[in-house]
Design brief:
Layout (H helix, E strand, L loop, with lengths): L9 E2 L4 H12 L4 E2 L8 H12 L4 H12 L1 H8 L3 E6 L7 H4 L8 E6 L2 H14 L8 E2 L18 E6 L9 H15 L4 E7 L4 H8 L5 H17 L8 E8 L4 E8 L3 E5 L2 E5 L4 E8 L3 H10 L2 E8 L5 E8 L1
Parallel strand pairs: 1-5, 2-12, 3-4, 3-6, 4-5, 6-7
Antiparallel strand pairs: 7-14, 8-9, 9-12, 10-11, 13-14
Helix pairs in contact: 2-9
This protein binds S-adenosylmethionine.
Length: 323
C-alpha cells in the first residue's frame, strides 16, 4: 500500500462483509455470477494493465488513438474551468492525454474500487501535473456517488469521463440507470465523455478476450484467488478454466469460469455444488453501434454533441451534454 501524506483519499472502499454478501448472492443464482468489479483487486488491476498492452486487446489502443488524435477538439467541446470526474479510473492513463489540453481545469476526481492503483496513479499525477487538484475517491461507482466535500466546485461545470468501455460491463438497462445517476452528479449543462466498444466481427472479440498468452485467463482466475484470500473461500483454481464467448443475440462478450469437474466449494458457511462444465459468469462487455449507443444515452437524457472513431472503426468516443 502506498502511504503518501499529500494524498487526500476519500475512502469508501467496500468492506469484506459487503463483498461476501455479493459473492454469496451471485453464487446462489441458477446461472452463477460474480460481479466484474471483483476482478480488480491489486493483482487484478496489475493484470488488467498487462491486458491493455496485448496486441490482441484493441480497445485500449483504439481509444488511446482517438484521445491522442482529437485531444484539442475534445477539450474544446468540454470547455474551460471544468471539474473532471472519472469513475473506474484505473491506472489513469487516458486522462493524461486530456489534462494538457484542458483550459484551467478546476480539478480531477478519480473514483476507483481498487485502492492501490488509485493511490499510485494519484501520486503519479501529482508529479506530472503539480498544479492540478486531484481528489481520489475509493468507492464502488455502482452505488451513489458523493463528491468530496473538500471540493469548492459548486459553480464549476462537471464532466464525467468514462473511458475503457466500462459502460459495457452493465446491461443496457443498468447502463441507462447509471447514466441517469451520472446526470444527477453533473447537473444541467454538465458533460459526459465516454468510450464504448463498437460491434464488429466476433473473431476479433474472441482474440481480445481470450489471448493466446493466457493473460486474460489469469485475470479471470485471479478472482477466485482473491475470494480465497479475502473471504476464506475454498476454490481450487486448478479446477476452473477461463472461457470467453460472443453472445451475438445479446451483443455482448461474456467471460466465464468453467468448472472442469463436478465439485463442492465452501464459501464462508455455505457449500456450493458445481457440475462439470457449469460456469460462473464473471463479466459481460456489451458492444454498441453508434446509433444504439446514442439512443441508450438519450434515454438517460444525454444529448449527443460529437463522436469520434479510430482509423479502423473499432471503438467510439462520445461527448454528450445534459440540457
Ligand atoms: C475496464 S477498466 C478501465 C480502466 C481505465 N478507465 C481505462 O480506460 O483503461 C475498469 C476500471 O474500473 C474499476 N471498476 C470496475 N467496477 C468498479 C466499480 N463498481 N466501482 C469503482 N471502480 C470500478 C476497475 O477497478 C478498473 O480500474
Amino acid at each position: 500500500m502506498i502511504e503518501n501524506a499529500h494524498i487526500d483519499l476519500v475512502d469508501h472502499a467496500p468492506s469484506t462483509s459487503t463483498v461476501l454478501k455479493e459473492v454469496l448472492a451471485g453464487l446462489s443464482k441458477t446461472q452463477k455470477t460474480l460481479p466484474p468489479k471483483l476482478l480488480y483487486d491489486k493483482r487484478g488491476s496489475e493484470i488488467f494493465e498487462q491486458i491493455c498492452l496485448l496486441k490482441e486487446y484493441y480497445p485500449t489502443r483504439a481509444e488511446t488513438e482517438i484521445l491522442r488524435t482529437y485531444s484539442s477538439d475534445i477539450s474544446q467541446m468540454i470547455g474551460p474551468e471544468v471539474l473532471m470526474i472519472e469513475p473506474g479510473s484505473g491506472a489513469g492513463d487516458k486522462i493524461r492525454y486530456l489534462i494538457p489540453h484542458l483550459e484551467n481545469p478546476k480539478g480531477y476526481v478519480p473514483i476507483e474500487i481498487s485502492k492501490e492503483i488509485l493511490l499510485r496513479m494519484t501520486d503519479e499525477l501529482h508529479d506530472e501535473f503539480p498544479d492540478l487538484k486531484v481528489i481520489p475517491v475509493c468507492a464502488d461507482f455502482s452505488g451513489e456517488i458523493e463528491l468530496p466535500l473538500t471540493l469548492d466546485s459548486d459553480r464549476a461545470k462537471k464532466v464525467i469521463f468514462f473511458p475503457g468501455s466500462t459502460i459495457g460491463n452493465f446491461s443496457p438497462a443498468e447502463a441507462t440507470q447509471f447514466l441517469k445517476r451520472m446526470g444527477k452528479v453533473v447537473g444541467r449543462g454538465g458533460g459526459l465523455l465516454i468510450g464504448a466498444d463498437l460491434k464488429k466481427r466476433p473473431d476479433i472479440f474472441k482474440l481480445a478476450y481470450d489471448d493466446p498468452q493466457g493473460v486474460t485467463a489469469d485475470f479471470n482466475l485471479n478472482l477466485l484467488t482473491r475470494l480465497n484470500r479475502e473471504t476464506g473461500a475454498g476454490f481450487d483454481c486448478r479446477n476452473f478454466e477461463h472461457e470467453a464467448i460472443y453472445n451475438e443475440e445479446l451483443g455482448r462478450v461474456e467471460m466465464h469460469l468453467v468448472s472442469k469437474v463436478g465439485q463442492l466449494v465452501k464459501v464462508n458457511e455455505t457449500i456450493f455444488r458445481f457440475n462439470e462444465g457449469e460456469t460462473i459468469h464473471t463479466e459481460s462487455s456489451y458492444k454498441y453501434s453508434v446509433s444504439e449507443f446514442t439512443e441508450m444515452c438519450a434515454k438517460a437524457r444525454w444529448t449527443i454533441k460529437k463522436h469520434w472513431k479510430d482509423e479502423n472503426c473499432l471503438f467510439g468516443v462520445y461527448y454528450f451534454e445534459l440540457e
